[in-house]
Amino acid sequence: MSNGPTHTINRCNRRDFLTLSAAGGLAAALGGRGLVAYGAAPAREPAKARVGGASDKSRAVLVRRKATVSLVSFPTLPRNEPDRLNKTLENMSRHIAEAAALGSDLAAFPEIANTLGSAEPWQFEPLDGPTVSAISKAAKRHSIYVVCPMGTLEEGIHYNSSVLIGRDGRIVGVYHKNFPTHGELDIGIVPGAETPVFETDFGRVGLTICFDLNYWEVGSGLCANRAELVLWSSMWQGARMLSKWAIEFGFYMGAIWRGGSTFVDIAGREIISIKRDISDKSSSAPLVTATLDMDRRLLHHDGNVGRLKPLYEKYGSTAAYAEWLSHECLLIFGSQLSNISTDQLIEEFGLETMRDYLARVRRDRQLALKGLYRPKKQK
Question: Is 156 exposed, middle or buried (0-12, 13-18, 19+ CB in 10 A)?
Fold first, then answer.
C-alpha cells in the first residue's frame, strides 16, 4: 500500500463531489471551480435560528451579512497648496458622500490620507483635531463608516494610525501601525503593539498599514481576533502579499494606496484592482466599490468535504454555498439560509475553518514535540 498523499477526503473524492452536486451549472458560471450542493431537495430552513457559532460563541451572529465597501484612492493637491489640509478634508468629505450615494457601508482611504503628497507629510493631530472632526461630520451626515489613516498624537506620543469612525460620527477604534519603517522610527513614530478588530453592524473589521503587510505577526493577530475584513492603507499596492494573507488568515482584504485600490476574497483571489495615475487631478472620485458576503468562511478541504452531505440532506440542496478549489486544498463555504449563519452550520456539522485548522495543527505539533500528543484512532 502506498504511503503517499491521497486526495480522497472523508470517503468523498472530487469525482463523487461533483457527481453529487446539484449546482453544476452555477459552478460553470463561477469559473468551473466546483460549486457544490448535495441532493436535489429545496432548502428547508429551521424553524428557529440559534445564536452563537463555532468561530465566536460569545456574540450573536448576524445572518446573511452583506457589506458594500468603497476604497478611495483620491488625487492629492499640489504639495504647497494654500490651506491644503482644509481643502483635502473637503475633498475627502466629498468622496465619502459619493461612496454613500453608491450605497456603501464603509469608505476607506490610503495611508496618511489627510497629508498625503504634502511638502511635510508627517503631521500629527490629537483625535479631537481638525481631521477627525471633519471626517466624523461627513460620516454622521451620510451614515457611513470611514477608515481615516493619519498621523496621531496621543499623550505626547506620535503614531502612524488608522481611525475607524462609525455611522454616528463617533470613533469606533484606532489602530497604530505595528511595524513603522526606519524612516518613521527616525522621526519619532512609536510602534503600536496590538492588532484590534472592531465590531461594526455588518461584521468584524481589522485595520493595518503599509509595511505591516511584511509581518506575519500582524496578520496572525488580526486572524486570532477573528477579523472578517481587513482594510490595508498603504503607499504601495501589496500585490501577491494580499493573497497570501487572505489564504492563511481567512479574511477579505481591501487595499488602498496612493496609486489605486484592490479587493481580494477570502481564498486570495483578486476581485477587482484599479490603478490610477497619481498625477490625475480630475475632480471625479476614483472609488473602487465591491459588495462582500461577510458570512463566507475559508476551510481547508481536509475533514470538511465529506461532512457536507448530511448538511444538504437535512436542509436541502441550496442550503449552503460550497466552492471546492481542489488544486489549492481550499473550500469556500457559506450559509444560504435566511435564519441560520455559516458559523452555526460549521458548529452543527463539525466543520472547521482554515484558521482554526492551522491553529489546531500548530497546537498539536507542539504537543508532539513534547511527546504529549495522543494520536486519534483512524476510522
Answer: exposed
